[in-house]
DNA sequence: GAATCGCATAAGTCTGTGCTTATGTGTTTC
DNA sequence: GAAACACATAAGCACAGACTTATGCGATTC
């Protein structure tokens, strides 16, 4: 189940930080490490987990590997969340406004 | 961070199953165990984790404890997801339709 | 073509966590 | 009020996973 890799990937705070950093723009693994006190292998392993969860994707450029957010993973979370629409609170208005935003 | 408890709670497949079951309607812990091959203490511990993540909430009734989906947890996931709206794919239409659904 | 660089992989260690059995606590039943 | 019930908590165990150091591998630099 794809669902599983996604939630498992996001369960780790370090991986959430990495994902958040990538959301600000594509970056290679070394750049991601800046100000993060994490070893190079650790970063590589975290990126592998995020990649397998389809939360990020890679683009090889020479000896660099640029990573960026993969919309597929986010879409799968949205799908999962949608299953429980019956329980969404009224103040889901934020999400509603958000989608209106995308229309413009 | 609330975010952490939520993703950690959902990282476990058994807990996701429990949550899914509760989404079908409120139920006490014993009813939840039906057809799940899980010990009573294990269920109790899983429910505690889900409760701390605000994904479910309890309602004590006599010697029974009924559990139900807590919209707060779902709202927090929606909020987290909303942070990455810039990366949502075009085919997020499902979500869009969903919200239209709620309007009726 | 040797050295360096960016990254991945291997192997081992240590902590977190999901399970178990055992027991405790409050509620209902008889 | 004793027994049965629904559930929580405690303690211990076994495995998953996040880290480390060491090494490998392709691309670039000189």
Summarize the structure in words.
The structure is a homodimer of 104-residue chains. The first copy, chain A, is α+β, with helices and mostly antiparallel strands and 104 residues long. Chain A has 6 helices and 3 strands, in the order ααβααββαα. The first copy, chain A, has a 3-stranded antiparallel sheet. In chain A, helix 1 runs antiparallel to helix 4. At the A-B interface, helix 1, helix 2, helix 5 and helix 6 of A face helix 1, helix 2, helix 5 and helix 6 of B. The structure holds a DNA duplex (30 and 30 nucleotides).
Please report the two chains with the greatest interface, counting residues with C-beta closer than 8 angstroms to the partner's C-beta.
A-B, 37 and 37 residues
Which quaternary structure do these chains form?
A: homodimer
Unreliable sequence segments of chain A: none
Helix content of chain A: 55-70%
Which term fits the overall shape of chain A? elongated
DSSP strand content of chain A? 5-15%
Broad structural category of chain A: alpha+beta
Helix count of chain A equals 6
Strand order of the largest sheet of chain A: 1-3-2
- Mean pLDDT over all positions of chain A: 88
The arrangement of helices and strands of chain A along the chain is HHEHHEEHH
């Amino acid at each position: 189940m794809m669902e599983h890799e996604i939630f498992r990937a996001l369960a780790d705070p370090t991986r959430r930080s990495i994902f958040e950093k990538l959301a600000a723009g594509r970056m290679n693994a070394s750049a991601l490490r800046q100000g993060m006190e994490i070893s190079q292998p650790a970063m590589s392993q975290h990126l592998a987990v995020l990649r397998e969860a389809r939360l990020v994707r890679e683009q090889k450029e020479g000896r660099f590997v640029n990573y960026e957010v993969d919309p597929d993973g986010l879409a799968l979370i949205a799908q999962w969340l949608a299953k429980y629409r019956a329980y969404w609170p009224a103040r889901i208005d934020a999400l509603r406004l958000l989608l209106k935003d995308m229309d413009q």
